[in-house]
Amino acid sequence: MAKITGWTGNLLRVNLTTGNIKTEDTMKYKDLVGGAGIGYKIIFDEVPQGTKAFDEANKVVIAVGPLTGTTAPCSGRTNITSLSPTNPYHAVADSHMGGNFGAWLKFAGYDGIIIEGASNKPVWLKIEDDKVSIEDAGNLWGKGTVDTEHAINEIMGKEACVAAIGPAGEKQRNLASIVNSVNHSAGGHGGILGAKKLKAIGVKGTKAVHIAEGKAQDWLKLNEYMMTDIIGANNQHVVPNTPQPWAEYHNPGSRWTAQLGLFWGAANPPVETGECPAGNKNKVGLRTQKAVFDLGPLAEERTIKMGGCYSCPIRCQSNMHMPELEKYGLSPYATSTCINYSSPNTAMVKGFSDGEKQGLDSIVAKCLGSRLADDYGIWSNYGQLPRDFKYLYNSGKLKEVLPKEEYDSINWELLEKGDPGWMVEYYGNLAGDGEFAHILDGPYWIDQKWNLGKEYWDAYGNNLWSKMAFPKHHSNEAGAQVGALINVIFNRDPNSHTHMNMIGAGLPLEILKEVAGEVWGSPDALDAPQNYTSMNEYKAKFAKWSLDRNFLHDSITLCNWVWPMTVSPSKARNYRGDTALEAKFYSLATGVETSEAEMDLAAERISTLHRALTIKNMNTADMRNEHDTIPEWVFEVDPDKKPFTEGTVKLDREDMQLGLTMLYKEYGWDEKTGAPTRATLERLNLKDVADELEKLNLLP
Fold first, then answer.
1. Which of 184, 343, 391, 488 would suit a FRET pair with 691, their CA atoms being 20 to 30 Å apart?
2. pLDDT higher than 80, residue 588
3. pTM (2 decimals)?
C-alpha cells in the first residue's frame, strides 16, 4: 500500500454518550479533500433529517485538509461543520478558526475529530498522539476560555493547544464561539459543544506531516516562488497603502500598510515596518501593520508585534500593550484582528466620551470588548450582534421587552457617556441569564420572540440578508451581482473573500478587468465600483469560481482571507497571480498529481454536496424561492437612482433572478428550483447523495 502523505489517514471518532473512542480511515473521503468536504459528507450520511442543532443526534466534525500542518503559506485554518442553531431550519454551516489547533491535530496524527452523542456531565477531550481520553471538566464548567486553556495547559504542558467554550457556549446560546489560543475563534457552534457538555479539547502531538516522497526540493521551490513573486498582504492586497518609490501604484484602502516611519511601537526595541518592496520574501511579515488599520493611528505606539496563525507569513493579528485594561481586572495585553475589534466599537452606539472614533477611548473599548467576547465565547455573527443591539436600543424595543427590574439594573449611563466600561456591562449581560442574553439567539429568533417585524429586516444599514438569519458579507457592494450571488448560497454569512480579495487588491480597474478576462473569459465579469452593468454569463462564472474556491479552501485547508492568488504585487509579472497554486501544493503534499481543472472539479463536488445537504436539512428542493432570497434593501437603496446608473450599488429584481438562473446553469443545477439534478450529482461521483435525495422526494 502506498504511503499516505498530506493527510494523516486517520479520523478520530469520539462518542460522548458511550465514552467509546476509535479511529477511522480518512481516505474514504479523499474525493472531498478534507475539512468542510469531510464534514458535509458525515453530516449528510449520519445525522437524521429533522435533527436540530442542540439535539444529541447532531454531530460536530472538526477537520482539516492535506495542506494543514505542512509549510504551505496560510494553511493554519481549522474547519468546524455542524448543524447551525441560528437559522430556522437548523441547516448546516461551517465555523472556522486560525491559530495552531489544526496543525497540532495533524501532529497528533488526525485529519479530524467526529464528536457525537452527549455527556451527562461536563468533560474535556485530551489528545496526546495515540492516547485519547475523556476527562472530567466539573472544575472548568463556568470558567472563561482563558482560564480553561490555562488549566488544561497546566495538565498537558504549555505546548498543548486548547480549544474551549465559555459561559455562552455552556448556556447553549446560538451565537457562541469556540476559541483556541486565547483569541482564535470559530463562531456559531460553541452552543453545540455546550449541549454535549464538552468544555474543551486539548491536543499535542509529536508526529510529522509528510509530503510526497522525493518532492522536498520541489516544495521548497514552490514556496520560494509564492513568497517572492505572488503573495501580497492581508486580503491579498498587492499594492502599498501609501505612495512609495518602488511601487507603480498605491491605494489608501490597501492593508499593505508598511512604510517608512511606521513602527511596532511597543516592541523592545521598536520595530520599523519600513518599505517592504515586492519580491523581498523576508519582509512579507512586516507588510500588514494591521493595528493602525483596525484601531487607528494611536495604536502604533501600543503595538508589540503582528502575530498570526501557524504557517502564515502575513501576520494580520495585532498584539497590543493596553495597560488601561488592568482597570477592569484584566492583563494589560490584547490580541485580535478585524471583526473582533469592530464589533465592540459598533456596540458603543453613543460614541466615545473623548469624542474621537480613533482616539484612546475607542482603542480601549475595542480591545476590552475583544478580550471579553473571546473569554465569554461570544460570536458577533459577523458584526450583526452589535447592530441588533443598536436597533433594539435606539428603537426603544429593548426597554419594552426587558423586565423593568432587569432593565433598571443595567448601567446604561456608561453607554450614554461613551465610557469603555460599557463593554463590561454589555458582554456580562449577554453572557448572563436575563432576558438581555436572548440577543444571542440571533436575528431570526429574536424577531420571533420580540416581534421586530418587516422594518427590522428591511432597514438599510442593518445588513440582514435573509431569514437564514445572517448579515451580508461582501455582497452587492462587492462585485455587483457576483457578491449578491455568493451571499445567497450559504446558511450563515459567506465568510468568502475570494471575490473581494481580487476586487479590493488595490490595482487599477483596467488591470483587474484584464485579469478577469483571463480567468473568467471576459473583462465584463467585473464592473467598476458603483457603476454596474446588467447580468452576464461571465459574472456567473466569476461567482461560481469564487464559491468553489471558498469551499476548496475550507477543505484543503487554506485561509480564504488571503487565498486565492488571483493577482500579485510583481510588476514583472504584470501583476498576474497564479490560480493553480492550490493544485500545485496539493500535488506535492499528497503525491496525487492534480491539475487546476481537477482541483476545481473537486471544489464543485464540495459546493454541490453543501447544496444537497441544505436541501435535506430544509426538506425542500425549491431553493430559489425558499432559500436564495435577496433582501429588499438591495433593490430599494438610493430611491432617487435607477439600477445600473453610476453612483449606486442598487440592483434590479428581474436581473438578479436571471443571475440565479445563470449560476444554476453553471453548476448544472435545475434552473427552476436551484437544486442539483441526479445527472449533476452522478457526474460529481455523488450517486449515493442523489439516491438519498430521491428517497426523500427532494430531487428536481
1. 488
2. yes
3. 0.98
